């Protein structure tokens, strides 16, 4: 193994995925209120949950992520911003099962993306109230187990950019690196 790769066990991938699912799942109601006949985000989250619970990583998880991505695009194109962020949270939850062992900042989005997109969805659903998103990030940080923090800390800091979702990602990333470090000792 070289300096560009990170060791990840299957148990750690399951723990990261469990965290991502726990962050995405509460927002699904926003999507379903806007698009009641579209189960793609919920199905993607369910596939990720099955992996977190011990099922094998299968094509169903990737297919679920792609389907949720299409749901995101359709909601975005319909002007349903909160619903589109919920679908992106579902994509991130499913993608967590495929966190790559590459020491790249963009991989942090597989760990924290579901929390950040769910937080943004809650903000938008509350009339773009940023305090709602910040409160959800606080809730998400409390869901992070020491195993999730340990995995996160092996990667570089979250990347810059990406608008408000990027801000929320960096808020959670910074808090987990600074404040939960004590939990790991």
Notes on the structure:
By secondary structure, the chain is an all-alpha fold. The protein has one domain (10-184). Helix content is 68%, strand content 0%. It is built from 9 helices and no strands. The chain has helices at residues 10-24, 28-34, 40-52, 59-77, 81-95, 108-125, 130-143, 146-152, 163-179.
Count of alpha and pi helical runs: 9
Q: For the report, how would you describe the main beta sheet?
A: none
- Give the radius of gyration: 15 Å
What count of domains describes the coordinates? 1
Order of helices and strands: HHHHHHHHH
Amino-to-carboxy terminus distance: 25 Å
Q: What does the average pLDDT come to?
A: 94
Range of strand content: under 5%
List keywords for this structure.
mainly alpha; globular
Entry summary:
By secondary structure, this protein is mostly helical. The protein has helices at 10-24, 28-34, 40-52, 59-77, 81-95, 108-125, 130-143, 146-152, 163-179.
């Amino acid at each position: 193994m070289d300096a560009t790769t990170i060791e990840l066990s299957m148990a750690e991938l399951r723990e990261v995925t469990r965290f991502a699912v726990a962050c995405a799942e509460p927002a699904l109601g926003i999507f379903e209120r806007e698009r009641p006949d579209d189960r793609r985000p919920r199905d993607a989250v369910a596939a990720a949950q099955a992996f977190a619970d011990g099922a094998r990583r299968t094509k169903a998880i990737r297919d679920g992520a792609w389907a949720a991505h299409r749901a995101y695009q359709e909601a975005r194109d319909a002007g349903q911003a909160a619903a589109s962020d919920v679908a992106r949270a579902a994509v991130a939850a499913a993608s967590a099962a495929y966190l790559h062992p590459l020491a790249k900042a963009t991989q942090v989005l597989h760990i924290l993306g579901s929390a950040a997109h769910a937080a943004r969805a809650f903000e938008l659903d509350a009339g773009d109230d940023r305090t709602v998103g910040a409160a959800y990030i606080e809730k998400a940080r409390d869901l992070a187990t020491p195993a999730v923090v340990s995995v996160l800390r092996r990667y570089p800091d979250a990347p810059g950019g990406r608008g408000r979702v990027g801000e929320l990602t960096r808020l959670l990333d910074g808090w987990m690196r600074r404040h939960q470090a004590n939990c790991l000792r």
